[in-house]
Structures are given as C-alpha cells and as structure tokens.
Specification:
The complex is a heterodimer.
Chain A (H helix, E strand, L loop, with lengths): L16 H9 L27 E5 L4 H12 L3 E6 L2 H10 L7 E5 L8 H12 L4 E4 L14 H29 L3 E5 L12 H21 L5 E7 L2 E2 L1 H8 L8 E2 H13 L4 E4 L2 H11 L2 H4 L5
Parallel strand pairs in A: 1-2, 1-4, 2-3, 4-5, 5-6, 6-9, 7-8
Helix pairs in contact in A: 1-5, 2-8, 5-6
Chain B lengths: L2 H4 L11 E7 L6 E7 L4 H14 L3 E4 L15 E4 L6 E5 L4 E4 L5 H8 L4 E3 L10 H7 L6 H4 L6 E7 L5 E5 L4 H7 L8 E11 L4 E7 L4 H11 L5 E6 L11 E8 L8 H4 L2 H4 L4 E2 L3 E2 L3 H6 L4 H20 L3 E4 H5 L20 E5 L2 E3 H18 L5 E7 L12 E10 L4 H17 L14 H7 L2 H14 L8 H6 L1 H6 L2
Parallel strand pairs in B: 2-4, 3-4
Antiparallel strand pairs in B: 1-2, 5-6, 6-10, 7-10, 8-9, 8-10, 11-13, 11-16, 12-13, 12-19, 14-15, 17-20, 18-20, 19-20
The chains are: A alpha/beta, B alpha+beta.
Amino acid sequence: MSHASSPSSTSAGAPHSGAHATDSHGHDAHGHDAHGHDAPAPAAPARRAKERRAIVVGASSGIGAALVKQLVREGVDVVAVARRAAQLEALAHDCAGSPGRVIPLTHDVARFDEVEAAFERAVRELGGLDLIVYAAGLMLEVGPNEFDTGKDLDMLGVNVGGCIAWLNPAANLMRTQRSGTIVGISSIAGERGRKGNPVYGATKAAMNHYLEALRNRLADWAVHVCTIKPGFVETAMLAQARAQGRTIKGAISAEDCASAILRAARSGKNEVFVPFKWRIVGFVIRNIPSFVFKGMNI
Amino acid sequence: MAPALRSLSVAPNRRIPERLEYVEGWGMAVGAFASVLRPRSVEEVLECFSLAAQRGHPLVLRGGGNSYGDASMNSRGLVLDISRMNRVIAFDANSGVATLEPGVTIEKLWKTILPLGFWPRVVSGTMFPTVAGALAANIHGKNNYAVGTIGDACLEFDIALPSGEHKTCSRTQNPDLFHAAIGGFGLLGCFTRIVLQTKRVHSGDVRVSAASPRTLKEMMDYFEAHKHEADYLVGWIDCFSGGDSAGRGLIHRADYLEPGEDAHPEQTLRVAHQELPANIMGLFPKSQVWRILVLFNHDLGMRSINAAKYVAGRLESMAPPYRQSHAGFAFLLDYVPNWKWAYGRRRGEYGLIQYQPFVPHEHAHAVHSEILERCRRAGHVPYLGVFKRHRPDPFWLTHAVDGWSMAMDFKVSPSRRAELWKLCDELTELVISAGGRFYFAKDAVIDASDAARFLPRDRMAAFAALKHACDPQTLLEGDLYRRAFREWIDNNA
C-alpha cells in the first residue's frame, strides 16, 4: 500500500498532458514566480501556526510558493504539490532550516486519475491534514477573436477539474475527522463574464460556486472552506499580462497575498478579496447593468 | 479534445473505489485513518480480499459504522465498506421474505416493506445500520425476549470468504458457518446476500403505554409480568438516582395492532406517516438540537435532564395508552441527528462509550444494582441507561443470555479516560463472575482474556477452527479482533 512510500517519489512517470498544453502556450498560473524576493527567515521567532500539517497544490511559484514558505516558517509541515520538479526542489532548498518541513510532490493536477493516490500519500506522509490550499491556476493568453477549445479546456482542467479532484478527497477526509480548513484561490475574474478571457473567468466562477457549496456542505462537520479572490498579485501571470502591453498598477507581492490568505483562513472568513479594495471593485463590477457592460472594454 | 480533459474519462487507477478517511466507532472515542474500499459486487469483494493479501494489510468489514466501539475500524490496514451494495433484490409480499444485498440499511428495508404491510422482525434503536452489519453483530431490539435476535429472523445468507470461496449458509446448509458468522463480527467472511423473514403488520402504528417504576426491582417485576403478552418492552433508568430510588425509570411497552383496530391502515402504513419530524415545534431544525444539548453535557445538566425525564415519565404513566408509528417507537436514537456531538466533536479525545453487560436472570438485580452504585461512587454516572430483557439464541458468540442487560452511555474525556476504563474493568469482573456476557457492537473495553472467560469454551474452539479454515491468512482483522479475539483464537489454533 502506498503509505510506505514517500510522496516525493510520485506516481508513474509523471504528467504531462497538461504540461504540453501549458508549455506550448507559454503561460502559467497564479502561478508566478517568487522572482528572487524569497523572504529571508524572520528574525523574530515565528508565530506558532494553528495548523500542523498542510497541502499546497500549485506550490512551485507565486502565491502557492509564498504560502509554503510562510507555513514552514511557522512550523507547519507542508506537502508542496506542483508539476515542475525543479522549481519544487528549489522551493524545498529555500525553505531548508525552517521549523516546518517541505515535502515536494511532483504531480500534474490535470491527471485527475492520479489524485486520490497522491492525496493519500501526502496525508500519510504528514500524519494527518489540517489545511489544504488549492493554488494551481492556468490563464492562457486568448486573443479578442480567438475561440480555441483546446486552450479553454486546458484551463478548465487545471482550474476546475484539478480543484475538484484535490478538494473532494480532502473534503471527505476532513468531514470524517470533523476538522480542517480548505482554501481555494479563485480570482476577481470570476465575478463577471468579461470579454477578455471568457473561459478563465468561467473557471473561476465555477470554483466560487463549488467552494461555496463545499462550505455549506461541511459546516456541520466543523470544516471551514475559504474562497480567496485575489486582485493583482506580482506573479508570473501578471508579468505575462504586462508583457502583452497591459498597464497594471497597485499589485501586491505574493508574500503579502499569502499572509492575507492565511489570516483570512484562520479567522474563519468565508470569502475574501485580497487586498480589500477589490471587494469594492467586485461590488461595482457585479452591479454594472449588462447593456452597459457589453460596451465596456474590460 | 484537449489532453487535459480527456483524463476525465480515464478509468481511475484504482478499480475499486478507495479513499483515505478517518474511520471511527460511532461513539467517537476510538478511531484511526484508513483506506476505505467500497466494492460494488461480489467479484469486487473477493478482489478486496486479494488486494489485502497483496498489500499485506489486514481488512476490517464495515457497514453503517454504528457500532459504538472499534468493531468496524482498523488502525493497521484497510476497511471494506459494504454500503454500496445496497439493492433490495426481492421481496415476497405474500410470505414477507426479503432478499437483500448486504449494504441495505434497516431504513431502506422498512421503507420498502412497510407500505406492503410488513415490518422487520428485529430492528436496532437507530435505522442506519446495514443488514450485513446487523447480522455480523447479531443485533437485538426491544423485543429480544420475545423473538430473539436478527439472526433468528435470518433464513439464509451468502458469504464471500477470504479463502476465495463463496458459500450459501442456512440452518441446514453449512450450519456451522451460519451460526458462527451471525454474531461473528465479520471475522469469517463478508455477507453478500441476506434473506430475512419479516413480520406481517396490520397498521403503521403500535399501541404504546408507559409505566414508571420507582426502583429497579419494580422495573424487573413489570417486565416479568408482561413479557408473555407484550410485543416490545424497554426500560429507561435514571442512573443518577441512588438510595431507595436507585434504578427508578420509565418503561415503554408497545403492541402491534390487530386487524381492524386501525381503521385506515393504508394511511398509517405509508412512509410519510412514519417520518420523524424535521423541526421541533415546526420551527427549530432538529439538526441543530445537539448544540443545545452541549450546554447540558455535564453531570449537573444530565442529572437535571434525567430527573425531568423521570417526572415526565410518571405523568405519562398515568395517561391512557396512545398510538405511535413503528419508526417513531423503534428509532429513538434518530430523533435528534448527531446528538452524540453533544459529547464533543474533537476527534479521538472526546465522545462516549457504551458499556452493556448482560447478566443472567438470577443475578441480574444484584449485579445491575451494584453496577449503578459503583458508577455513582466512582463519579462516572452514565448519562443514559437502557434496560432490556433477553433470551438465549443458538449463535456461537452470542451476547444474549436468559437475563437482563443495562446499556450505559459514559462520557469520555481525555482527563478521565483512564479511570473510566479502570471502572469498566472492575464492572466487567463483577459481570463475568456472575456468568454474564458482553456485546461487541457496544463494547470498547473488554480484552481477549475477559472474552475467553465469558464465551463458551467449545464454541471458541469451533470458531477458531472456522476462522483458520475461512481466513487462512488472517486477512480479516481489525481493532476489535486484536483487542478481544486474537489471543483466544491463537490459543485455540
């Protein structure tokens, strides 16, 4: 049975249906990169986290990587799941010396059939599970007149399929143990159907719906589900948008975003915009009448 | 289609659905993480056995997970959950014979047969056990003294054995396996088809009356005086009450209605007539009632609730008999969903255990009185006590005696866990010395040497021999087996 083996030796010869898709379209996820601003170990003793064991899916860069670093600094053992083994290794290296352990698990979230076994291995390695964060995300560049089903389904696979495949077993485990926190990193993009990237927005709206339903389903079992809707965060995804000529100001760092996420999850918030100002933006966007929205270039 | 999505239709790499879960006893005081397999056919059950052998991990069988202790959990291996094999294969509305897949719950059974004018002969206090779990535990109901256990209502079953065989058993075909597997706690094989005889009823209601005995002696006298004509008898005891009123409580008696007594059986036999109300006073959702019970889940609170129930019972006993639906009378434990959470929801630390000694008639009054007294002296008073009359049955490891049982719910907390277990050990000594027995579906504390003292010697030897024949690699073992069986089975090898 699988629990004897180490999660880092993941399953069968790995991935890569999704890998092709992502690579060939040269994008990535919430993705992001820590871009060298790896936070140094804090001088003050780290706060003792309320969780002891966590899984972060989509951990190789950006918000996911920042979350892993912060959690291990606080003494949490983290299974860091991502497709790119080299970046996971680098992350583990960066976190060496922290009070918590990083256990890398190479896995392509679009390989849904491998998730149950990978999840079980991760939980057995950790000896339980208190927190899971689904931070994997894929936003492919889509032209204004482009309707590419292949790209769209790739985004659907990573953002929705992978999310369901990972959070279903986590939800079931946490229900049976009557404790735990589930965090899904959605996006402000799920608030409205914008013309820019129809399916990316649709996947985030689907995530919101799914996470809300999980929250309601698990409430009686003392399991909390927190939906995070980040605005602009300094990640590879943002760098990609800038490279396409968009002007983006006021982005927060992945580290600040990670701190805000953990604060929100620990304080039992249901749905949080990060940073807060995006709640106002979200409210406005949700309430623009359709006949106006149609003509807007956002 | 894009490669990523194509994976959606790829068969999972685990053919039999398998999932990591926290698997605990119903009382929540014991539990462990385990991979849970959910086979959907006989072939898949046999495949689970092969899988366990191949992985070198033992397997425990689990039905609805309603055993209070560790009967269906496995801290060192796999769990085979039978709940997906849950079809009613056939029901003969002339004879009342039901042929069921093992994962059919008692709820599904009664909801299927009641509209046709039948009711299960034996049901537990909750409707959520599966028939396989019920048969493996050989459950009894509030009519045990009259009709025996569920094993007595079983005509035949098929069982898949870890040895790879698939056998049909009845009182005439493979009778040894029939009498050993019923009450054998899933240690010999997995039921795959169960045939039960059910009872014809002429109404969806029963006639209920109450009596309010002031002592344990009065309660036992009432049972003895009425056991020949009453269809159901169940006693509740206020375990906080001592001195002259020790053992005071409330008895409910229920009787089936005769043909013609119910003017509208077609109405009362409907499932809708049986359903327990979802709200209290039409407003407050029952699913949240446990949160209120939390406020009373301490000695003072429970002393008050028990006293109030006794007073209410005295008033009820003065009222004339009334009619109640079968489900309403039978499934008292289902009135408040998840009421056990009032004992604490934190995994593995809090919860409750049930301790249910069965004592032969001649010693029952003395032993049960002494048990109540010792509990009070030790400061571990059961928050709920239920008293029943029993009769012997032919199943090898049966708990039933010609006597009386008292089921007691004890609160478990981390700080008092060890002393509670010690108290139970003392009580166990008392019970076994009086020729009493225990029921593994309710138990969490008996060890194998205790079990070897109360189980009949010849039956232990025969059971051990069957275990070796049916399960030569000892694939079927869980926490209960390791705690209360292995030692005497090995000694009888």
